[in-house]
Specification:
3 domains, Beta Polymerase, domain 2, alpha+beta, two-stranded antiparallel sheet, cca-adding enzyme, domain 2, 20 helices, elongated
Length: 408
């Protein structure tokens, strides 16, 4: 029995990056041997075990063979005869197909260290094309390591393009796709994830609504970058720079989908794009079974982001309707994330990344003013039921009128 550290732990150590998760592969062992040493089995598809003390995952060396469509369409074979090289060749990228023993002696049969130095994301073997999920994984790695100068090798991008055109991407489950998408959006340069998917034609398969934004012009007076797709990527980049959570990043990606529906004869104007985009945002949310908090914020930002930009001009009654739509009295955090997404949208314009966004503090102040209305005095006056609701609304409107007058 020989045990090796494999994959990301080896890659990140060689890159000088922090190692968080460690994967181990065991060569020359049987399931019975693992069990006799106290390892606990997990996973029904192939032999993976948890270490009796550390709880880390140890997998028996295995080979795999394509047996069906999609991510799950594989037959695995694990036995003591499977070599380390045979186990490593089934991995996605050369930089993930290295192993080291307990003395840090490197086993690198597919030149992963060379590709690390060349800053290349290159597939290990033609078997790469057997797993459609790898298109998303490579794009995610590109987003993670873009700041180090990594790019996708041309021959790997071509394989990804073939996968995109094969129909295999449609076989991916929503859960697996969302796991990769959500992880990619939380990388330092999530816009690179979208760029790589677009470069290999996967974006038009997975998110045609986002793909449709590229080449659609906007008014240069408001959007010096002009192209709606380029703007979307810049907004996403700003969200990453400002360390925003996944909810905000997802909303930033989808906020302008309605502009992809504007007829060419109306360009560069996009009248009512906020409302037109809602059905597209819903479609993307449903396609990937997106978590509810991400779904809700994306829809609200899509519908109301222009309200955010015009906050200083809004009538108190419109401002009140906006606050009601977000239920700021019970869910203040969601409104805060909306404000943030609007600010990222404003900053995601060429040359305007550092411009101040006074609308943010104005909206926060409006929410405080509306929330400051006390309900108890109205109850003491005898209001109840629908009448109480109307009375609260009147008082909140009065508070917002005073707030707007004081802010002018």
């Amino acid at each position: 029995m020989r045990i090796y550290k494999v994959g990301g732990a080896v890659r990140d150590r060689l890159l000088g990056k922090p190692v968080t998760d460690i994967d181990w592969v065991v060569v020359g062992a049987t399931t019975e041997e693992m069990l006799s040493k106290g390892f606990r089995p997990v996973g029904a598809d192939f032999p993976v075990f948890l270490h009796p003390k550390s709880g880390e995952e140890y997998a028996l060396a295995r080979t795999e063979r394509k047996s069906g469509r999609g991510y799950g369409g594989f037959t695995f074979h694990a036995s003591p005869e499977v070599t380390l090289e045979e186990d490593l060749i089934r991995r996605d990228l050369t930089i993930n197909a290295m192993a080291e023993d307990d003395q840090q002696n490197l086993t690198d049969p597919y030149h992963g260290q060379r590709d690390l130095e060349a800053r290349l994301l290159r597939h290990v073997s033609p078997a790469f094309a057997e797993d459609p999920l790898r298109v998303l994984r490579v794009a995610r790695f590109a987003a993670r390591y873009a700041s180090l100068g990594f790019t996708v090798a041309p021959e790997t991008l071509e394989l990804m393009r073939q996968l995109s055109e094969s129909g295999e991407l449609e076989a991916l489950t929503p859960e697996r796709s969302w796991k990769e998408i959500s992880r990619a959006l939380m990388e330092d340069q999530p816009q690179v994830f979208v760029e790589v998917l677009r470069a290999c034609d996967a974006l038009k398969v997975l998110m045609p609504e986002v793909n449709a934004l590229f080449g659609v012009p906007q008014p240069p007076a408001h959007h010096p970058e002009i192209d709606t797709g380029a703007h979307t990527l810049s907004v996403l980049q700003q969200a990453a720079i400002h360390k925003q959570p996944l909810t905000v990043r997802w909303a930033c990606l989808l906020h302008d989908l309605g502009k992809g529906l504007t007829p060419e004869e109306e360009w560069p104007q996009h009248i009512a794009h906020e409302f037109k985009g809602l059905k597209l945002i819903k479609a993307v949310n449903e396609r990937f079974k997106v978590p509810r908090d991400c779904q809700e914020l994306a829809l609200l930002v899509g519908e109301y982001h222009t309200h955010g930009h015009r906050a200083l001009e809004l009538k108190p009654s419109t401002l009140l309707e906006l606050l009601q739509s977000f239920d700021v009295y019970r869910r203040p955090q969601r409104f805060e994330e909306f404000i943030t997404a609007c600010e990222m949208d404003a900053r995601g314009r060429k040359g305007l990344e550092e411009r101040s966004y006074p609308q943010a503090d104005y909206l926060r102040g409006a929410a405080i003013a509306a929330r400051s209305v006390a309900v108890q005095p109205l109850l003491e006056k005898g209001f109840k039921g629908p009448e109480l609701g109307e009375a609260i609304k009147r008082e909140r409107l009065k508070a917002l009128k005073m707030y707007k007058a004081a802010s002018s």
